[in-house]
């Protein structure tokens, strides 16, 4: 009997791991995207993932949905570690109803959010999903309300990181928008309130998905995304790198680790980096790389509002936030975008006990009617 139960458990596990089936997984790979589980494997330390709610199914009985159930219901949730640090994760499975959100799917995410706050650990969401599950209607919308509430409660309490890794619409964009950092994958990820088809129907405007909400648009033009990466692997590797800089919660000081740089080392090139003539530009990034430990600098929003530079680095092993004017772009003036970029960053550092180093070289505010 026990043998029978174990076999049944294993069969169910295999079924859950298969997601939306071979064909849809192949389509996912053909688009250059990894599956929800492959992404978790790359994000977390090997073998560290502990899954929750693997067999949860939706409760919808409309539109023939009672006959279409996939264990896990389109999202893989749980916790694991990144270089030994505990993080909570949810990863949307596009092969199951396009990763769309049901009431049961929402409850799985809320559980992870609450647990992360209790433990004091970052929450990382991997998004590849078409928003509210149309078949569930209002139950799905109510699920989003629960998730959004936890986004608000977690703000400033634990770091919240969102990675957009597929076409994301509706609630799968609104929730990331409330988190601390959003990263996208070039050519395979999109973020929009409504997709190009709805735009065409409502306003008759013809626009491609890339123009409407592609990675380049959000990383360089709207500033919604803090970074855009070449592929899933690079995005997940960079999230691991970012997590290393962050404290697990607002109850902890900024992390410290051994540095290979001497705290009092001299950097003679700094004597000549800044030109004597104040009208001559220079690259502030070069200065930052020379000052911080091991020239290791994780830049935030490197393609947007380039007249200010924000990012994480270490000094004598301890995480610091760097905010610096960039004389090379618009002479380093402050305008609306750069002020917002820096303010957001400073607020994050403030909430998470990260000291800030400011390098100031600024001619002042950008004048003009547009800015006023
Ligand atoms: C149910 C969905 C779905 C959804 C996609 N699918 N979105 N099922 N609810 N919202 C299913 C498809 O039927 C399809 O099923 C599979 O997922 C893959 O979708 P495709 O359309 O074939 O993929 P693709 O061409 O890549 O387009 C992806 C997409 C598009 C851009 C996300 O599917 C799309 O526009 N979906 C609808 C988006 C939307 O309007 N969502 C509602 C947002 S409103 P099969 O069986 O063929 O594999 C919202 C409100 C939040 O979220 C408010 C909170 C208060």
SSE map:
Elements: H1 2-17, H2 22-30, H3 36-43, E1 50-52, E2 75-82, E3 85-92, H4 103-119, E4 123-127, H5 138-154, E5 160-164, E6 167-169, H6 171-177, E7 181-185, E8 190-192, H7 196-203, H8 209-213, H9 215-222, E9 227-229, H10 232-245, H11 270-273, H12 284-291, E10 298-300, E11 308-315, E12 318-325, H13 336-351, E13 356-359
Parallel strand pairs: 3-4, 4-5, 5-7, 6-8, 7-9, 12-13
Antiparallel strand pairs: 1-2, 2-3, 10-11, 11-12
Helix pairs in contact: 4-5
The chain binds hexanoyl-coenzyme A (HXC).
The end-to-end distance, rounded to whole angstroms, is 76 Å
Low-pLDDT residue spans: none
Q: Percent of residues in beta strands? A: 15-25%
Number of helices: 13
Please state the structural category: alpha/beta
Residues in helices, as a percent range? 25-40%
Provide the list of bound ligands, each named once: hexanoyl-coenzyme A
* Mean of residue pLDDT values: 95
Query: What does the overall shape look like?
Result: globular
Q: What does the oligomeric state look like here?
A: single chain
Radius of gyration: 22 Å
Number of β-strand runs: 13
**Largest beta-sheet characterization:** 7 strands, mixed
């Amino acid at each position: 009997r026990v043998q029978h139960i174990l076999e049944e458990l294993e069969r169910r596990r295999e079924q859950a791991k298969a997601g939306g089936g071979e064909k849809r997984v192949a389509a996912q790979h053909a688009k250059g995207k990894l599956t929800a589980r492959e992404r978790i494997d790359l994000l977390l330390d090997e073998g560290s993932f502990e899954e929750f709610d693997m067999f949860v199914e939706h409760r919808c009985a409309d539109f023939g949905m009672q006959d279409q159930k996939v264990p896990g219901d389109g999202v893989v949730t749980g916790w694991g570690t990144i270089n030994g640090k505990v993080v909570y994760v949810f990863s949307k499975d596009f092969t199951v109803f396009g990763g769309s959100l049901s009431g049961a799917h929402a409850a799985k995410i809320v559980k992870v959010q609450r647990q992360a706050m209790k433990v004091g650990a970052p929450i990382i969401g991997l998004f590849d999903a078409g928003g509210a599950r149309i078949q569930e209607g209002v139950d799905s919308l109510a699920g989003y309300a629960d998730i959004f509430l936890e986004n608000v409660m977690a703000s400033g309490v634990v770091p919240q990181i969102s990675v957009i890794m597929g076409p994301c619409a509706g609630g799968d964009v609104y929730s990331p928008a409330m988190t601390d950092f959003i990263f996208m994958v070039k050519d395979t990820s999109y973020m929009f309130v409504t997709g190009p088809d709805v735009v065409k129907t409502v306003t008759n405007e013809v626009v491609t998905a890339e123009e409407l909400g592609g990675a380049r648009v959000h990383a360089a033009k709207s500033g919604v995304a803090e970074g855009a990466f070449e592929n899933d692997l690079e995005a997940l590797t960079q999230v691991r790198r970012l997590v290393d800089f962050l404290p697990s919660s607002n109850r902890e000081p900024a992390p410290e680790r051994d540095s290979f740089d001497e705290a009092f080392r001299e950097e003679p090139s700094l004597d000549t980096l800044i030109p004597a003539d104040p009208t001559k530009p220079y690259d502030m990034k070069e200065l930052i790389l020379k000052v911080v430990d091991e020239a290791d600098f994780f830049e935030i929003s490197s393609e947007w509002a380039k007249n200010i530079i924000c990012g994480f680095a270490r000094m004598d092993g301890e995480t610091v936030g760097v905010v610096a004017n960039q004389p090379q772009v618009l002479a380093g003036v402050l305008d609306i975008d750069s002020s917002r970029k820096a303010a957001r960053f400073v607020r994050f550092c403030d909430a998470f006990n990260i000291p800030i180093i400011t390098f100031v070289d600024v001619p002042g505010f950008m004048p003009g009617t547009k800015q006023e």
